[in-house]
Amino acid sequence: xxxxxxxxxxxxxxxxxxxxxxxxxxxxxxxxxxxxxxxxxxxxxxxxxxxxxxxxxxxxxxxxxxxxxxxxxxxxxxxxxxxxxxxxxxxxxxxxxxxxxxxxxxxxxxxxxxxxxxxxxxxxxxxxxxxxxxxxxxxxxxxxxxxxxxxxxxxxxxxxxxxxxxxxxxxxxxxxxxxxxxxxxxxxxxxxxxxxxxxxxxxxxxxxxxxxxxxxxxxxxxxxxxxxxxxxxxxxxxxxxxxxxxxxxxxxxxxxxxxxxxxxxxxxxxxxxxxxxxxxxxxxxxxxxxxxxxxxxxxxxxxxxxxxxxxxxxxxxxxxxxxxxxxxxxxxxxxxxxxxxxxxxxxxxxxxxxxxxxxxxxxxxxxxxxxxxxxxxxxxxx
Length: 382
Fold this sequence. Notes:
The protein has 382 residues and is α/β, with parallel strands linked by helices. The protein has helices at residues 16-30, 73-86, 101-108, 125-138, 149-158, 172-175, 204-217, 232-236, 255-262, 280-287, 298-303, 318-329, 332-346, 351-366, and strands at residues 2-10, 34-40, 51-53, 58-62, 65-69, 90-94, 109-110, 113-117, 143-146, 164-165, 190-194, 222-226, 247-249, 267-270, 292-295, 311-313, 373-374. It has two domains: 2-169 and 350-374, Rossmann fold; 172-348, Rossmann fold, CATH 3.40.50.2000. The longest helix has 16 residues, at 351-366.
């Protein structure tokens, strides 16, 4: 099958949606399908051979984060050309409810369209305000996928209609083995964190407060942190002076470095306070066999099977996080038990399973159509 996939966010900025699209595309290619992705990206950005750049992205505040989106005349023309030249059997758009390449693709294309909704927001003024504008594009979608029940609820409450729930996928073999970073985890134990450090909803401040409690109790304990942050010194100075040299900031890491980080700690922490529809980083830690301690939000309850495959702590409660992490650090048998449970649970999210479920949606909506064509209203691209 010829499959076109739209990535609404900038390809070179780490994010769960971008990784989902990359891994889905590669899983489908491995199965013998012809896949093309169009993404917000500068023309000189290094891209995989299956990705077409749609032009420079601009930063837009969205869902407690800053999304880098591409939306304008240049992007419209490139999307139109990509669809026309692609001759796709099915078009798969991601996050079409926001002004992005995905919405542009819905507007200029006809034929089978599948949409995946990733966002989980209890109440969004942006979605309510923009819905009249995006409605005409959303009405052309034939099949809808939500990556979690939380994302499905957001879709139902803000836009209407329903969706089949197919979770994010994880390339589990990628995370199975890796060499730890030199000197890690060390005899005093180590906790790991990975995320965008300057976004409050990722919960790093909760983890740092918990480390203030745990640090004095466990003199050798260290914290290994990866993610973008503008001012590392400012971040460290939020901690008491005696703890600062026990927190190591790696900055933004590559995929290989991320896997090594996961194999360099004893416990992985997901202290996110909300706005998560699935928890892909948490699932990746599980795929590495790490015992996880995570905030008790819906996305993490789902991935951790209600606490069977990881410890849950009260959302935003640093003291409860310190208690949960301390118990795990002091109990190797419990860590081994959670490691085995995590590996068993995350198998349900392997791309060999998830890509097959996504492809079944493609088959359902194609209904004998052989090409996604540019609509007459979209015009011809010269």
